[in-house]
């Protein structure tokens, strides 16, 4: 098995799981908390790979995580989301220290990487 397969990223093009269990919506509040003195911000920009890297380079960002938001399949795989049939958005959650990084700085990074008028809402790496 390739390393992509081991990560659950191989075999694009399959059909999303559609059982009643997989369509169940997550219930209850998100009880995850940022580290003391930090805050969370979440951004959806088409695809999370390049966007996550851009946020990781921002001074004051202490952690990034990628995942999916919205959609109609509970606990989707990367393959499910890439099929285009689940209506999920790929998102990056940023944990940051607001004394070292202002939210406006994060917005500047987001808008430098995300153009809602382009296909897949992404722009090329400015470097």
UniProtKB/TrEMBL annotation:
Source organism's superkingdom?
Eukaryota
- Enzyme Commission no: 1.8.4.11
Every Peptide methionine sulphoxide reductase MsrA domain range: 41-125
**One GO molecular function term?**
peptide-methionine (S)-S-oxide reductase activity
GO CC, sorted alphabetically, is: cytoplasm
Query: What is an example of a Pfam family matching this protein?
Result: PMSR
What Gene Ontology biological process does one annotation of this record name?
A: cellular response to oxidative stress
InterPro entries (UniProt xref): Met_Sox_Rdtase_MsrA_dom, Met_Sox_Rdtase_MsrA_sf, MsrA_MetSO_reductase
Its keywords, alphabetically, are:
Oxidoreductase
Catalysed conversion reaction: L-methionyl-[protein] + [thioredoxin]-disulfide + H2O = L-methionyl-(S)-S-oxide-[protein] + [thioredoxin]-dithiol; [thioredoxin]-disulfide + L-methionine + H2O = L-methionine (S)-S-oxide + [thioredoxin]-dithiol
Tell me yes or no: is Oxidoreductase among this UniProt entry's keywords: yes
Q: Which Gene3D superfamilies match?
A: Peptide methionine sulphoxide reductase MsrA
Region Disordered, as annotated, extends over 1-39
- Its name, as the record gives it, is peptide-methionine (S)-S-oxide reductase
Tell me the gene name: gb07472
């Amino acid at each position: 098995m390739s390393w992509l397969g081991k990560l659950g990223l191989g075999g694009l093009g399959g059909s999303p799981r559609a059982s009643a269990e997989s369509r169940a919506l997550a219930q209850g509040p998100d009880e995850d908390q940022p580290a003391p003195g930090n805050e969370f911000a979440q951004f959806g920009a088409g695809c999370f790979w390049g966007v996550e890297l851009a946020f990781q380079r921002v001074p004051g960002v202490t952690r990034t995580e990628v995942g999916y938001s919205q959609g109609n399949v509970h606990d989707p795989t990367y393959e499910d989301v890439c099929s285009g049939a689940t209506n999920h958005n790929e998102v990056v959650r940023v944990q940051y220290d607001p004394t070292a990084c202002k939210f406006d700085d994060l917005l500047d990074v987001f808008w430098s990487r995300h153009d809602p008028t382009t296909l897949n809402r992404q722009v090329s790496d400015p470097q």
